[in-house]
């Protein structure tokens, strides 16, 4: 199942390929997963996508599924959660484990924005115990096309009165757009007003 996302000015697109998982264990007894594992990728509270269910892989499922998902500019982490599909519709899915991936692992540094990052993370269950490994790749799309906050100029002391120094000051943006890209907010003192 291939899905797409259309980023707004306050977001960029992540192309995440969920490759596979290894050694999946579920519950306090750490029993091996038999079938029906899938992965949910979440970038914020309301933005998430899921892979198809792997019915045959057992505790070593393989998906090789590409997801394109919007990532807010302010986000610091993405969450990958491996779940086991419930047998009955009235029951909820069982969470096998989750990995919280820092955005700094695939954005920034010296790699170009379209660089393909191959990553593997350990999964932890709700009790903090190891429950397997998730393998995936990430490519950041459209980050260079976005407006970035310019880096501040190098700070050099200014000539002032005796005992007083001056320097460059970096401030907070006075206006920003909501996720829909059409609603502008303007800051006044401690509040923001919507236009």
TrEMBL record:
Q: Which Pfam families match?
A: C2
| Signal peptide span | none
The record ties this protein, via InterPro entries, to: C2_dom (IPR000008), C2_domain_sf (IPR035892), C2_SRC2/BAP (IPR044750)
Q: State the CDD domains in the record.
A: C2_SRC2_like
GO BP of this protein: defense response
**Ranges for domain C2:** 1-117
Q: What is this protein called?
A: C2 domain-containing protein
Q: Organism, per UniProt? A: Nepenthes gracilis (Slender pitcher plant)
Q: What is the lineage of its organism?
A: Eukaryota, Viridiplantae, Streptophyta, Embryophyta, Tracheophyta
């Amino acid at each position: 199942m291939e899905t797409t996302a259309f980023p707004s000015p306050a977001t960029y697109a992540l192309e995440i390929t969920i490759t596979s998982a290894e050694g999946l264990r579920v519950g306090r007894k750490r029993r091996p997963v038999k079938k029906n594992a899938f992965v949910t990728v979440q970038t914020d509270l309301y933005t998430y996508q899921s892979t198809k269910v792997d019915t045959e892989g057992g505790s070593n499922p393989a998906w090789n599924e590409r997801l394109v998902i919007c990532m807010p500019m302010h986000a610091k982490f993405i969450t990958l959660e491996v779940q086991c599909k419930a047998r009955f519709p009235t029951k909820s899915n069982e969470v096998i484990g989750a990995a919280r991936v820092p955005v700094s692992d695939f954005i920034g540094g010296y790699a170009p924005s379209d660089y393909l990052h191959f990553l593997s993370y350990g999964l932890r269950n709700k009790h903090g115990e190891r429950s397997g490994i998730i393998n995936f790749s990430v490519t950041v799309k459209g980050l260079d096309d976005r407006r970035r906050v310019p880096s501040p100029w190098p700070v050099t002391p200014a000539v002032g009165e005796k005992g007083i120094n001056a320097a460059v000051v970096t401030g907070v943006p006075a206006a920003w757009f909501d996720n829909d890209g059409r609603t502008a907010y303007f800051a006044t003192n401690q509040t923001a007003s919507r236009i």
